[in-house]
Amino acid sequence: MSDPTQPPVDPTSSEPTSSGPASSDPTGSTPADSSLPPAYPAAPSYPAPGAPAASGSGQAPAYGQPAAYGQQPAYGQNPYGQQNPQDKYNVLSIISLVTSILLISVVGIITGHIALSQIKKTGEKGHGLALWGTILGYVGLLGGAIFAAFTIILLLAAASTGTSYNY
């Protein structure tokens, strides 16, 4: 920290900045009993990686901050930390995949088709999730239909054997 009552120090200047009786010293050194604190040069400031150099002020903007008021954010970034619409997943695509895995195939098929339609319009993420939810839904529906047909055939075959138990 610097003393606000002292004049600013120019780190590029090689001349001493003290005034008073010590300034007449040709060696440029100040006596040990001087009431002035030693003047230290300001630490150099380097621009943050990827940030443009500030013009004129000598100070670089803080990391992640725009260089000046009113300056547009970098390409592909939304101001104020808002999320891009392309960065979020379609909720119906997640529901489609989960319900298809849980063998609720009809819900997985319906939500998968709706999600694929929404993703095409909005550009959200989740196309693969919706596609796999739809595929697994159809596979589950086909597997359920085969299982039901096999069970019905097995029950009809067992009922037609005509065995009776006589006691």
Automatic annotation (TrEMBL):
Q: Which UniProt keywords apply?
A: Membrane, Transmembrane, Transmembrane helix
The Low complexity compositionally biased stretches are 11-24, 51-64
Bias (Pro residues): 1-10, 38-50
Q: Which residues cross the membrane?
A: 94-117, 129-159
The record, for Pfam families, names:
DUF4190
Q: What positions does the domain DUF4190 occupy?
A: 92-146
**Region entry Disordered, spans:** 1-82
List, alphabetically, the InterPro entries matched: DUF4190
Name of the protein: DUF4190 domain-containing protein
Q: Which organism is it from?
A: Cryobacterium flavum
